Amino acid sequence: MTRERGGIAAWLQAAPYALVLVMFLVVPLVLVVVVSFWHATDYDLIPAFSVQNYLDAFSGCASTTELCVTFKTYLSTLQFCLLVWAITLAIGFAVAYFLAFHVRSVGTQTLLFIVCTVPFWTSNVIRMISWIPLLGRNGLINEALRGIGLIHAPIEWLLFSDFSVVLAFVHLYTMFMIVPIFNSMMRIDRALIEAARDAGASGWQTVWNVVLPLSRTGIVIGSIFVVTIVMGDFVTIGVMGGQQIASVGKIIQVQTSYLQFPAAAANAVMLLIVTLLMIFGLTRLVDLRKEL
Amino acid sequence: MAARREARPASFYPLAAVLGLFVLFLYGPMITIFVLSFQGPEGGLTFPMRGVSLHWFAQLWQGLGVVDIAGAFRRSVALGLTVMALTVLLSLGAGLAFRKRFPGSTLLFYTAVASLIMPSIVVSLGIGLQFRLIDDTVKAALGALGLQALADSYSGAMGIFSSALGAHLSWTLPFGLLIMLAVFNRFDPAFEEAAADLGASPWQRLRFVVLPLIAPSLVGVGMFGFTLSWDEIARTSQAIGDLNTLPLELQGLTATVTTPAIYALGTVTTVVSFVVIGATLLALKVTRRRAADRARPSG
Fold it and tell me: Has residue B188 been placed in a domain?
């Protein structure tokens, strides 16, 4: 396969793929950036170059006494992001470690892996609403706690709350952590573990100084998935928060539904910048192309 | 392997417990709604069960309020199959191209990765804007040509097989390419070289050597395409016309439907996913067995 022979043929083979990405990713993103500087009336988009949409998003943010809506929303979304990231990472690492190092036969490994993957085949919304009969006011948990006399009135914060949002995120997206971390762990040369043990490392020391650094790629890839999903989310926060909790994604969605496209676009650009900065920070740690 | 026969380390049991709890956490809620979808006609959204019936499935079939579930179901299946076919074809083409390192390949790779990690709401908004601007342009052009009647009757380019299809592809194609790259990274070119030495044309090498070898992965790409499309909400949300897909209807119903019919809908969509994946795994098994049969020396 020489470079010259590859030229035209390779281009033709990749062209349809590239074309679809240009049409449905590149052009839309460019439009989002462009329209974020436009004006709009109730019916029309008016081409312009104005930073008014950005100024509007930050209106009131100069105040030092109280946080403006935008900052508050970003803060709350970042909080969700951090919390979900920490929990999914902890569970994901533990489960992946168990599957990679403690399960000894490949057959059992595959079986357990499939067991973990099966729920993933169900629609996300279904997996969200499936918490209602458990967490609701008359749900299983409240009924059980009341049954054993631990509480007298139902606990209200179980459903349609920050708690249920985080729970649903962890429920939905821990697999995104497990798969890449497991993948990285399976590539660790087992001789290194033995060497660490022979050198006198305790179990914890081996995990901390050998396994953790060598699983870095998987951790970074999983983290990128979880961070981008949570940052842009509006479905999970909407359904599990009873449509009462604000998020950056939800602002964009609401503004679009009122046809305030330039304002939505300005928020989308800011979301994009924040997310890309977070991803950039994470990718500094790893070269993605080498890992495939 | 003798070294592995030693006693289990102390950390085995707590970690096994973590996995057990995690699996319970994954399955518990799903099993609950599966059971509750067979709730009796008198029953509600929570336990206890008041009898066992198919009442809520019947309700579902008749439609929930104004929502045409059967129509949304058909649209989602049709869209999923289209996305599946296009994902396989386009990813295969791109995967083959990437074996030859063409100029711009790095850019294309990073564009695909960008599509994967771009917040879906942003992509969705962009596609929505794009189609709105297309509509405005078309209407203005028709008006300028003096075809006002045509301009008034133009209903917009957004729809299941235009904007929604594009939104889904922007989500499935990166997965397709990553799988193809992983497959070809592990692909032994010796088979092709042998075929070339025996006088096979490039097309024959593709058709009779490469494709049979990577067939299982292509089936996997197709399955990914369908299931990702079947569930997709975030990217479709702002890029859909008048007719919704099933997950979008479902999301809307969570706010309005307060009967176990919504659990019945959950059970139905889950069964579809399981059937698709089951069929895929079966297809993989069959192709693998055929390949094994062929590989076995006949003499």
Answer: yes
Confirm whether B2 is domain-assigned: no
- Pairwise CB contact (< 8 Å): B102 & A6: yes
Instruction: Look at residue B278 and give its three-state secondary structure.
Output: helix
Q: How many domains, in total, are found in chain A? A: 1
* Residue B164, domain extent: 74-242
Q: Is residue A85 part of a domain?
A: yes
Is B142 among the domain residues?
A: yes
Q: Mind telling me how many Å the CA of B10 is from chain A's nearest CA?
A: 9
Q: Which of B121, B134, B238 to mutate to test the interface with A (most CBs of A within 10 A)?
A: B121
Please report the ipTM that was assigned to this predicted complex: 0.85
Of A46, A48, A26, the C-alpha closest to A37 is: A48
In CATH, what number is assigned to the domain containing residue B127? Answer: 1.10.3720.10
Cross-chain Cβ contact B94/A17 below 8 Å: yes
Where residue A189 sits, what CATH number does that domain have?
1.10.3720.10
Flag if A13 and B112 touch (Cβ within 8 Å): no
Considering only the C-alpha atoms of chain B, give the largest distance between any 2 of them, rounded to a whole number of Å: 86
Q: pLDDT tens across A30-88, in order?
A: 999 999 998 887 777 778 888 888 888 887 777 777 778 888 899 999 999 999 999 99
What number of other Cβ atoms are within 10 A of residue B90's Cβ?
27
User: What does the pLDDT profile of chain B (299 residues) look like in tens digits?
Assistant: 444 455 677 778 888 898 999 988 888 888 888 888 888 877 777 777 777 788 888 877 777 666 777 888 889 989 999 999 999 999 999 999 998 878 888 999 999 999 988 899 999 999 999 998 998 888 888 888 877 777 777 777 888 899 999 999 999 999 999 999 989 988 888 888 899 899 888 888 888 889 988 888 898 898 889 888 988 888 998 888 788 888 888 888 877 777 788 888 888 888 887 887 788 788 878 877 877 777 766 54
CB contact under 8 A, B9 and A102: yes
HSE-CB of B191 using CA atoms within 13 angstroms: 15
Q: What is the nearest CA distance from A99 to chain B, expressed in angstroms? A: 9
pTM recorded for the entire structure: 0.85
A158 part of a folded domain:
yes
- Domain presence at residue A81: yes
The C-alpha angle with vertex B155 and arms to B151 and B158, in degrees rounded to 5, equals 130
Contact A1 B100 (CB under 8 A): yes
The answer to whether position A232 is within a domain reads yes
CA–CA min distance A22, chain B (Å): 9
All residues of chain B having their beta carbon less than 8 Å from the beta carbon of residue A225 are 117
Query: 3-class DSSP state for residue A63?
Result: coil
Q: In the beta sheet, which residues pair with residue A39?
A: A46
The total domain count for chain B is 1
A140 half-sphere exposure, CB direction, 13 A CA radius? 12
Query: Angle, nearest 10°, between helix axes B211-231 and B165-185?
Result: 150
